[in-house]
Amino acid sequence: MILGSLKNSAIAEKTHPLFKKVFDYIKTADIKALRADSSKIELDGDKLYLFVSEYQGKTKEEAKLEAHKRYIDIQIPIVGTEQMGWLEIDRCTKELSPYNTEKDLVFYDNPISSYISVDQGEFAIFFPEDGHAPGIGEGFIKKIVVKILL
Q1: What is the pTM (predicted TM-score) of this model?
Q2: First to last CA, the chain
Q3: Side-by-side strand order, sheet with 48-56
Q4: What are the start-end ranges of the H helices in 86-130?
Q5: Which DSSP helix (H) or strand (E) runs through 10?
Q6: Which residues pair with 127 in a beta bridge?
Q7: Which of the four pLDDT bands, split at 50, 70 and 90, describes residue 37?
Q8: SS3 at position 95
Q9: How far apart are CA 43 and CA 150, in angstroms?
């Protein structure tokens, strides 16, 4: 997992060949104008795309621990502050349902070991080894979720 600021994304950009393309787009696009009802925005086909998500924040108890096997997530709040839970994937042992290959998604029912707070102008990157529970917060949250194929 990487937590960082959009204004200091240069180091994170060096960790994957497509990360610079992500951050260049985020820094130049009118991200506040992006709408959640839009379809995914492809930056490099299925290898790199993003979508906007809007919802009311959840409690820590309501948030579901999830993981992905084929994609890296970059989560960037546009409106609101979001807390996200984290648990190393090796400790994610209680599957709530089998891995969904089509959605690249599996949910777990393990206790979360750490929480981070991600504010506007910041980002969190979750790799396949990072179980994460997004969406924790109060009030309205709008964010960009970027998907990067491994």
Answers
A1: 0.95
A2: 15
A3: 2-5, 122-126, 71-79, 140-149, 48-56, 41-44
A4: none
A5: helix 10-13
A6: none
A7: confident
A8: strand
A9: 15
